[in-house]
UniProtKB/TrEMBL annotation:
Matches recorded under Pfam families: AP_endonuc_2
Keyword Isomerase belongs to the record: yes
Protein's name in the database: Sugar phosphate isomerase/epimerase
Domain Xylose isomerase-like TIM barrel span(s) in chain numbering: 26-251
UniProt-listed SUPFAM superfamilies: Xylose isomerase-like
Organism: Alicyclobacillus fastidiosus
InterPro entries: IolE/XylAMocC-like, Xyl_isomerase-like_sf, Xyl_isomerase-like_TIM-brl
């Protein structure tokens, strides 16, 4: 069953009540709370019991599920790792099963990569202690940035709480085939981000070109492979850079993306079950 949600970073210029209302209105089933300092903090690491209850009430009132939390930060800084652990604790209290964070570090810098792996190991243990999963986000420019480094991580840190967050726009921009990457990493992917961009460019495109179907990311092939491997976790639309956009523009991005992605998943499931040929 498709679990299609929205990362509230798309609604970074608005409060959670507004975000939840329009995420539900545009047809999504779930929500990924953004806890990214300086970008969108719909959940803070200091959220009180009362604040957590309010978040839960808002989400439930809109008929949504809490799929995940994104808490991107530089985990090589000890204070940031401690913040991450506080987010894990609040995820447990909210009943959120997964928190996703990138590796930090620098691509192909062995010293930084080793430090990142140790930090990830520490956070995996902390997540496990809270009874949740830590989805390491494969991220352009960081230590864990492609298929090879992700497989290395999963070999070196064999912790049951650790898995991978997959986003084709990160894997594809570093030269990996994003479809082949899903196949290679399928045993470790526990959460997915999805969006579009101009995949041939290193910089993520402006929000309108992150709208699913407007860029050059091979989303039809990515969706077909996701269905083919039997992935049944959450897939959250993650579109950055929209904080200054007017609310109707943000809602339009969510709605257009939902329509496009829902069609792709419906066609891919049909092809998988019947062998029928479907269009792009």
């Amino acid at each position: 069953m498709l679990k299609l949600g929205v990362n509230t970073v798309l609604f970074g210029g608005y409060d959670l009540r507004t975000a939840a209302k329009y995420i539900h209105f545009t047809g999504y089933q779930g929500i990924e709370l953004s806890s990214i300092v300086g970008m969108a903090e719909h959940l803070t690491d200091t959220a009180s019991v009362a604040e957590l209850k309010e978040i839960r009430t808002i989400v439930d009132a809109n008929g949504l599920e809490l799929y995940a939390i994104e808490a991107a930060t530089d985990i090589l800084v000890e204070a940031n790792r401690e913040r991450s652990k506080r987010i894990f604790e609040r995820a447990e209290r909210l009943g959120v099963p997964i928190v996703t964070i990138g590796s930090s570090g620098v691509s192909d810098d062995e010293e930084k990569t080793e430090a990142s792996i140790r930090a990830i190991e520490e956070l995996a243990q902390a997540a496990g202690d809270c009874g949740i999963k830590f989805a390491l986000k494969i991220h352009y420019g960081q230590s864990i940035y492609n298929t090879r480094t992700a497989l290395r991580l999963m070999e070196e840190v064999q912790h049951p709480a650790l898995g991978l967050n997959y986003d084709a726009t990160h894997v594809g921009r570093v030269g990996d085939d994003p479809v082949e990457a899903i196949e290679a990493l399928k045993d470790h992917i526990i959460h997915m981000h999805i969006r579009d961009t101009l995949i041939e460019q290193l910089k993520i495109a402006a929000p309108p070109l992150q709208t699913a179907g407007r860029g050059t990311t091979p989303l039809p092939e990515i969706v077909r492979k996701t269905v083919e491997i039997g992935y049944d976790g959450a897939i959250d639309l993650e579109i950055i850079g929209a904080n200054s956009m007017e609310l109707p523009e943000v809602v339009a991005i969510a709605a257009e993306s939902h329509g496009y992605l829902s069609r792709l998943f419906e066609e891919s499931r049909l092809k998988e079950t019947t062998g029928a040929s479907v269009g792009r």
